[in-house]
Structure formats: structure tokens, C-alpha cells
Specification:
The chain folds into two domains: 4-260, Ribonuclease Z/Hydroxyacylglutathione hydrolase-like (Metallo-beta-lactamase, Chain A), CATH 3.60.15.10; 334-408, no CATH class. The protein has 15 helices and 13 strands. The protein has helices at residues 4-7, 56-67, 84-87, 90-99, 113-122, 124-134, 224-236, 252-278, 283-289, 309-320, 336-347, 349-352, 356-362, 366-386, 390-408, and strands at residues 24-27, 30-33, 39-44, 47-51, 74-78, 106-110, 162-164, 167-172, 175-182, 189-194, 199-203, 241-244, 250-251.
Length: 410
């Protein structure tokens, strides 16, 4: 059987050398450099405008590909938002400028990007920990996760020199850069339109796969209807090309379909969840009731690779509702191990062994507990093998590692 590390969803981190084949020239002065995430570069008479910097590893390779095309200085860097796969390479671009004797590029972002940076610094250990689980980086570590980086944000990160509130516009070397604030996957998002090239650099406002509303590891408040509005505004520009945050360059027809169909999906799901909440339904019933409509089933722009229907429902519910789930006993719940121990007293470990979670958490007999932990690891592995959502797959695989470790500790 292949190892857990081989089965994890690596989110492009192992594809750095292969991304160049997805690079695209939109015009002689406008390019997309593919990475995790993508980078847009516009060449003007006054210097380059770089839109996003990708993640750290991808930025190193993107700089090489960029410098094979031009030695022009980077005049401005626009950050579409503060996620690491879009700002992680910022220090790489700044170092390139310094080594070439160029002035430090001007950095522009929405006014909430510095707020995000500050939050990442405050919760650095947590961010590192959950990212290791979410992206499958902890599968070789059987105990507590060994975090190799001292801080979540790289020390060469730079805060924006210029921020804006709703929108801003500037011209450089004959090209116009229109910046629009958009709430969606984040509250600090920017998408960019270059009217002379009829091109949108969308960041994560437009990308392949189901919108990631309701990430179970991260800030729950994400913005489904506002995200829909942003995609509708992008489509309304009638662009000839869209550089998405992730995935291949989109032509106008493809971008319009992705934007309008994802927007329609988010608006539909918002209305379904809010409608059930208004009828007095709790989250458990909402999750059980709402299913993907047939017209969207199997559509590539709604593949559940990162976001998924269950997560989006959670995200919408948690935006408008509290954490109470309709069960009074859960207001002050007992520890899971205490509940499991009481159930085992009534039913017995042998009868419940197929419920490995309960036995592993509640039984006191070391031999039974070891057997249950090993069984739980097998169940988690089997579930991970059929899971298409990368976040879920990596979480299940990590849980299997921990369960095996717990078995060895008995």
C-alpha cells in the first residue's frame, strides 16, 4: 500500500517544476505565471506591475521564468489578499529587486491586509499547526506536530505602502489598473481590471472548484453573497481573459460561466440555509436536507476539492447563527471520554468494538484500547482513500497517524 504521505493532497507544493507549462502570454506586455497561486505581471515603460507573489517555493521559480523574459525593475506589487499562497513569495520579489540594485517596489493592498498580518502574528503557532494538518505536512510525525518554522509569516514579509478602502485606480506606462475590494473567501480581497487589455486578475475571487466558504480550520466568517456579487461584477466587465487565483488562464466565455454559475450556486445555497434557519431548523437538519441540485452535479467549477457543500452550509450557518445546535445537553457537554465510558458500561466493549472511536476513548483495558486505536486508524485510512476533498483527506490521514501513535502508547 502507498504511504500516507503519497496519498495526501499536497496542493501543488510538489509541482513547482511543472507549473511553467501553464504560463500564458495574454499580450506582449501581460503574462500569467502559474503557481500555487498564480501571478500576473504587466510590463510598462515605467517598470513591472506584479499582481500577487504566489507561495514561497513557487515564487523562487516564477522569478526565474520572469527574468528569462525581462530584466525590467518591478515598480509595484499588488496583493489580492493576505493568504500565504498569494503573499508568501513577497520577500523573494523584494530580494530580487535589492540584488539588482532596483528601488524597493511599491506594495499596494486593501486596508484589511495589515490587520490579517497582525492576526497571523498573534496566532502564529495555531496557524502553523492547522496548516500542517490541512495541507498534509504532518503525516510523518507521530506525536505532537514538530513545527520547523518559528513564525507563520516569513520574516521578510513587508506591509503595504499604500492601502485603500473600496476602490482605487492608477495609471502606469499607458496601462490602467483598477482595484476593487471584494469580500468572499477573505475580507481583505482585491481583484484588478486592466481595461486596455480587457483582463481581470482575480486572485481568489474567481478560481476553479467550489468556493471555500466554511473552512473548518480557519476563520469561520466568510462571505457567500458578497463573493457572488464580486463574481457577477467580474463577469460584468466582459473580460477577454481572467487570471484566476488558482488554475489555468480563463478566456472570456469560460470565466463568465465560472463566475455566474458559482455566484448562482452561492446565492441559492444562502437562500436555502437561511430559509431553513427561519423555519426553526438547526444545523444538523439543514446538513441532512440540502443536497446538490442535479444541474450543478459534476460541474468542474463546483468540484469539491477544497471547498465542499457541507463546509459551505456550515459557513453560512455560522455566519448568521450561534454555536447552539438544538440539543440542550450540548450547552455544557461532558467530555467525550466520559460519555464513551458510560456507554461502554451499559453496552460492553466487545459489542461496540466496531465503533472504534467510542472504545478507544472510553475503555480502560489497555489491550482493548490498543485494538480500538488500530481499528480506528484502519477506518480513517479507508475513509481517506475514497475522499476527494483534500482538506478532509489530509485531516483523516493525520488522525490515523495519531491513532496509531496512541495505540503504541498503550
Amino acid at each position: 500500500m502507498t504511504s500516507r504521505s503519497e496519498r495526501r493532497m499536497a496542493w501543488g507544493a510538489n509541482l513547482v517544476s511543472e507549473m511553467a507549462r501553464f504560463d500564458a502570454e495574454i499580450a506582449p506586455d501581460l503574462w500569467m505565471f502559474a503557481g500555487f497561486g498564480n501571478v500576473g505581471v504587466a510590463m510598462t515603460a515605467e517598470g513591472l506591475v506584479v499582481m500577487d507573489t504566489s507561495g514561497r517555493a513557487h515564487a523562487i521559480d516564477i522569478i526565474k521564468r520572469l527574468r528569462a523574459k525581462t530584466q525590467a525593475p518591478v515598480h509595484t506589487i499588488i496583493l489580492t489578499h493576505g493568504h500565504g499562497d498569494h503573499i508568501g513569495g513577497l520577500g523573494i520579489f523584494l530580494k530580487d529587486a535589492e540584488e539588482r540594485g532596483h528601488r524597493k517596489p511599491l506594495i499596494i493592498a486593501h486596508e484589511l491586509v495589515p490587520v490579517r498580518f497582525n492576526r497571523y502574528k498573534m496566532t502564529s503557532g495555531y496557524q502553523l499547526n492547522v496548516n500542517m494538518i490541512q495541507y498534509g505536512g504532518a503525516l510523518e510525525q507521530s506525536g505532537n506536530i514538530n513545527i520547523s518554522r518559528p513564525q507563520f509569516l516569513f520574516p521578510d514579509i513587508a506591509y503595504p505602502d499604500i492601502t485603500y478602502h473600496d476602490a482605487m485606480q492608477f495609471k502606469l506606462g499607458g496601462l490602467t489598473f483598477e482595484l476593487y475590494h471584494a469580500e468572499g473567501e477573505t475580507d481583505d480581497h482585491t481583484w484588478i481590471y486592466i481595461p486596455e487589455r480587457k483582463t481581470v486578475i482575480a486572485g481568489d475571487a474567481c478560481k476553479e472548484g467550489m468556493p471555500n466558504i466554511g473552512n473548518p480550520f480557519k476563520l469561520m466568517l466568510r462571505y457567500e453573497t458578497e463573493w457572488a456579487e464580486s463574481m457577477e461584477l467580474i463577469a460584468g466587465k466582459n473580460p477577454e481573459f481572467v487570471i484566476p487565483g488558482h488554475g489555468s488562464l480563463m478566456d472570456g466565455a469560460a470565466a463568465r460561466e465560472v463566475c455566474l454559475e458559482q455566484a448562482a450556486f452561492l446565492r441559492w445555497l444562502h437562500d436555502e440555509v437561511i430559509g431553513m434557519m427561519n423555519r426553526g431548523c438547526w444545523l444538523e437538519e439543514i446538513l441532512e436536507t440540502i443536497k446538490m441540485p442535479e444541474k450543478w452535479a459534476g460541474k468542474p467549477y463546483l468540484h469539491e476539492i477544497y471547498g465542499c457543500l457541507n463546509f459551505v452550509i456550515h459557513g453560512i450557518y455560522n455566519r448568521y447563527g450561534g454555536w447552539y445546535n438544538g440539543h440542550p445537553a450540548d450547552l455544557f457537554p461532558s467530555k467525550r471520554s466520559e460519555i464513551a465510558a458510560e456507554v461502554l458500561k451499559v453496552s460492553g466493549a466487545d459489542k461496540l468494538m466496531k465503533e472504534a472511536d467510542f472504545v478507544a476513548d472510553g475503555v480502560q483495558d489497555k489491550t482493548l484500547r490498543k485494538t480500538a486505536h488500530l481499528l480506528r486508524a484502519k477506518i480513517l485510512d479507508a475513509r481517506a482513500n475514497i475522499e476527494t476533498n483534500g482538506m478532509v483527506k489530509n485531516t483523516l490521514l493525520r488522525a490515523a497517524v495519531v491513532s496509531e501513535k496512541d495505540a503504541q502508547g498503550q
